Amino acid sequence: MSKTTVSTLQQYKQDGKKFATLTAYDASFAKLFSEAGVGVLLVGDSLGMVLQGHADTVPVSVDDMAYHVASVSRGAVDALVIADMPFMSYTTPIQTYETATKLMQAGANMVKLEGGEWLYESIKGLTERGVPVCGHLGLTPQSVHLFGGFKVQGRQQSQADKLLSDAKALEAAGAQLLVLECIPTELAATITQALSIPVIGIGAGSVTDGQILVMHDLIGLTPGKPPKFSKNFLTDGRDVRGAVAAYIDAVTDGSFPGPEHSFSS
Ligand SMILES: Nc1nc(=O)c2c([nH]1)NC[C@@H]1CN(c3ccc(C(=O)N[C@@H](CCC(=O)O)C(=O)O)cc3)CN21
Ligand SMILES: CC(C)C(=O)C(=O)O
Ligand SMILES: [Mg+2]
């Protein structure tokens, strides 16, 4: 296996080949996932929930992220490592560059930011300075207090129109990847087709170019009630490697996510 890059994912999109990605927070899982053939690993700020036990991702700091990015990058043999920028660490272009510096110097290959058109200048500035960017739209968990809970986004036509124009703005700013979280499958299909960059979905149906799953959901370790769009693959006598292989197979052959893991308009 060779190192996965954005061009690898671009090629998958062109070829209509679905790809599976996972979150990772330490070197051991990063190594196992990478060796099992997962080409992209996200050091998600979900670590605030699945590692630290918080109710949401708001308490996570840049230092927390940098610590886990450093561990994951040591274990991620061939995988592209994406690091989440945490809550309020990218409020201005300058602060965005400072946060990105810490995460890239800790070993990330790309940073991910939650938000739409308002991030245009920051994303353009990052890419001009050599930092690859992944966008994140829909249910952006850092806005959970604004949304009033972890709720499906984009069901109203006005919201759906805004999400599509935000996605186009992120691509125009230079984002090379996009995550769509918890939106109706129909809207995810429209956005995926409208963009030339690869789109990775979670709770966005099987219509996106790739899928992402929080590793704790994959192996049945979710603290509390697992999200509807997630699936425990550590079943049927499988070990962790077997669960990862079953997840990759299910994404590649289009059987995961099914309608029971997806939302409609
Ligand atoms: N374990 C875990 N899995 C995740 O996918 C995840 C995290 N943690 N932490 C960070 C964010 C938070 N996410 C979440 C968490 C809960 C729901 C949830 O409970 N959603 C409802 C849908 C409600 C509706 O229909 O509007 C659900 O039943 O799935 C969604 C996304 C996704 N991310
Ligand atoms: C759920 C994914 C997309 C994420 O942002 C995270 O794990 O923090
Ligand atoms: Mg996140």
UniProtKB/TrEMBL annotation:
Organism: Corallincola holothuriorum
Its biological purpose: Catalyzes the reversible reaction in which hydroxymethyl group from 5,10-methylenetetrahydrofolate is transferred onto alpha-ketoisovalerate to form ketopantoate.
Subcellular location: Cytoplasm
Pathway linked to the protein: Cofactor biosynthesis; (R)-pantothenate biosynthesis; (R)-pantoate from 3-methyl-2-oxobutanoate: step 1/2
Quaternary state and interactors: Homodecamer; pentamer of dimers.
Entry's Gene Ontology molecular function annotations: 3-methyl-2-oxobutanoate hydroxymethyltransferase activity; magnesium ion binding; methyltransferase activity
Reactions that this protein is recorded to catalyse: (6R)-5,10-methylene-5,6,7,8-tetrahydrofolate + 3-methyl-2-oxobutanoate + H2O = 2-dehydropantoate + (6S)-5,6,7,8-tetrahydrofolate
InterPro entries on file: Pantoate_hydroxy_MeTrfase, Pyrv/PenolPyrv_kinase-like_dom, Pyrv_kinase-like_dom_sf
Similarity comment: family membership: Belongs to the PanB family.
Residues binding 3-methyl-2-oxobutanoate: D45, S46, D84, K112
Enzyme class: transferase
Gene from which the chain derives: panB
The EC number(s) this enzyme carries: 2.1.2.11
Identification of the protein by name: 3-methyl-2-oxobutanoate hydroxymethyltransferase
Keyword field: Cytoplasm, Magnesium, Metal-binding, Methyltransferase, Pantothenate biosynthesis, Transferase
GO biological process terms held by the UniProt record: methylation; pantothenate biosynthetic process
GO cellular component, one term: cytoplasm
Domain of life of the native organism: Bacteria
Record flagged with keyword NADP: no
The record's free-text note on cofactor binding: Binds 1 Mg(2+) ion per subunit.
Active site: residue positions: E181
UniProt cross-references to HAMAP family, sorted A to Z: PanB
Cofactor(s), names only, from the UniProt record: Mg(2+)
Binding site for Mg(2+): D45, D84, E114
